[in-house]
Write a structure and sequence with these properties.
CATH topology of the largest domain: Jelly Rolls
Number of helices: 12
Number of domains: 2
Shape: globular
Oligomer: single chain
Distance between the termini: 18 Å
CATH class of the largest domain: Mainly Beta
CATH superfamily of the largest domain: Regulatory protein AraC
Helix content: 40-55%
Strand order of the largest sheet: 1-2-9-4-7
Order of helices and strands: HEHEEEEEEEEHHHHHHHHHH
Largest sheet: 5 strands, antiparallel
Structural class: alpha+beta
């Protein structure tokens, strides 16, 4: 049994993973004036990731950043092996042959991001300019990790145009903290949740059920028409379409980390018609659920 086969069946306790839908990438991220400069395509957190392993002989079309919080692992880029330890990160340039994996005895806990964009290659060059063997070392910084968590949480709440631009700009700040660590300062700020944010939180609580537009409007204490207008103005999507985005986000996690049949994944998300679920998933992700799961066998 291969190590990555074990990982894909069991996953890691406490793992996090978001893969942005192909439709979102093609329709918005690649064309918007802000996000086309730099955007995330995949993001995750793997704690104590025993048996974690990936191998891509031809590389992939995104740059990969792996930050090791604790434990140990290794990365091989163009046949050059690098040992990774706590508070170290590695950047793998796109289209570079690579392999990586966790230490067997003290497996790493990692934050990782796949990213691309018109400025991405230049940013990677800047990061690597003064770093030996693709591997800069950093002091642990809670504010930097808070940026990662903010990015992940924002994407977890859905893919509104504002959210995607915010993620792009926050990710730029995150990268700047890697390149210019001495200048890195993260101001303390808290924002009060608005009606739309509270509604998205309600959607997440109800992700395993079906929710009607009327129920969402009632939760927000607004008329259906007023709520729909506010929600679409803020996110760029109707409430139900946004809710479906969140369902597909969770579906990707089930397909990546469990062996649940596709029809069971649909039921877990409150969709009792597997054919409807497959059509919706394919429309948003660009591939069927079965094809997506097969593709993830060699990803990350």
């Amino acid at each position: 049994m291969k190590a990555n086969d074990f990982r894909k069946r069991e996953g890691f306790n406490g793992q996090k993973l978001i893969v942005l839908p192909k439709k979102i990438i093609n329709d918005f991220l690649n064309s918007d004036a802000i996000t086309r400069q730099l955007h995330i395509t995949d993001i995750g957190y793997y704690p104590k990731a025993r048996f974690h392993y990936a191998e891509r002989n031809a590389g992939i079309g995104q740059h990969i950043l792996i930050y090791c919080l604790e434990g140990y692992g290794w990365v091989e880029i163009n046949k050059e092996r690098i040992e990774i330890g706590p508070s170290e990160f590695v950047v793998i340039p796109k289209n570079s042959s690579h392999r990586y994996g966790a230490s067997e005895h003290k497996p790493w806990t990692i934050y990782w991001i796949h990213f691309k964009g018109e400025l991405a290659g230049y940013i990677v060059e800047l990061i690597l300019k003064n770093a030996a063997n693709f591997q800069p070392k950093l002091a642990y910084n809670e504010e930097r990790m808070a940026l990662f968590d903010d990015i992940y949480h924002t994407l977890e709440m859905g893919y509104s145009s504002d959210a995607l631009r915010y993620v792009s700009m926050t990710f730029s700040h995150f990268l700047s903290s890697l390149m210019y660590e001495r200048k890195f300062v993260n101001p303390d700020h808290k924002a009060e949740k608005d009606i739309v944010e509270r509604s998205v939180g309600f959607m997440k609580e109800k992700i395993q059920t079906s929710v009607t537009l009327s129920e969402l409007a009632e939760f927000s204490r607004l008329s259906v028409s007023h709520f729909s207008s506010i929600f679409k103005a803020k996110t760029g999507y109707s409430p139900i379409e946004y809710f479906n985005h969140l369902k597909i986000q969770h579906a990707c996690q089930y397909l990546s980390f469990t062996d649940l049949p596709v029809k069971n994944v649909a039921i877990m998300l409150g969709i009792h018609d597997p054919y409807y679920f497959t059509r919706m998933f394919t429309r948003l992700m660009g591939v069927s659920p079965t094809a997506y799961r097969k593709k993830q066998e060699h990803a990350f």
